[in-house]
Amino acid sequence: MTVRLGTLLRKDVPRCAELEQEIFAGEDPWSPAMFVSEIEAGAFYIGAFEEDDHLVGYAGLAVVGSPPNAEAEVHTIAVDPKRQGEGIGKALLRQLLDRADAVNAVTFLEVRTDNESAKGLYTAHDFEVVGLRKRYYQPSGADAHTMRRPSLTEREGKKTS
């Protein structure tokens, strides 16, 4: 993987929206305004940039509450289809999870039930399926699994028991 991870800025939003249209064309891709709103609200958004600062992936996490009751939600992880399979998505996810662990947050996300590669990535990072959301993705009507990753304290407790 030859990318650097860094803070997603407003100037990156047009490229995010472009990737959204390509990756999530069959669903309801985020608009530039949605990205700006998340960034301005203080959510944790990072980008994966090539050496020339070309954005090839992005990810976002929102954290609510504070320890011991903090919760985090992965809002999005996306990688340019031409760069998928290079470990960029894994690197982005790890950055989000480091942020969640820093506040000892339980972390949630939704993933298409038929997205086996994403579910495998999440399972490898301690997520478990805890629910099913019928027709979650629109307009396709695809179902989503809700997945949960225990807080750092919960995961460490399992290791010692």
Automatic annotation (TrEMBL):
Coiled coil: none annotated. SUPFAM superfamilies: Acyl-CoA N-acyltransferases (Nat). Keywords: Acyltransferase, Cytoplasm, Ribonucleoprotein, Ribosomal protein, Transferase. Residues 151-161 have a biased composition (Basic and acidic residues). InterPro entries: AcTrfase_RimI/Ard1 (IPR006464), Acyl_CoA_acyltransferase (IPR016181), GNAT_dom (IPR000182), YpeA/RimI_acetyltransf (IPR050680). GO terms for cellular component: ribosome. Residues 1-148 form the N-acetyltransferase domain. Residues 140-161 are annotated as: Disordered. It comes from the Bacteria. CDD domains: NAT_SF (cd04301). NCBIfam families: rimI (TIGR01575). Belongs to the acetyltransferase family. RimI subfamily. This is Ribosomal protein S18-alanine N-acetyltransferase. It comes from Allokutzneria multivorans. The gene is rimI.
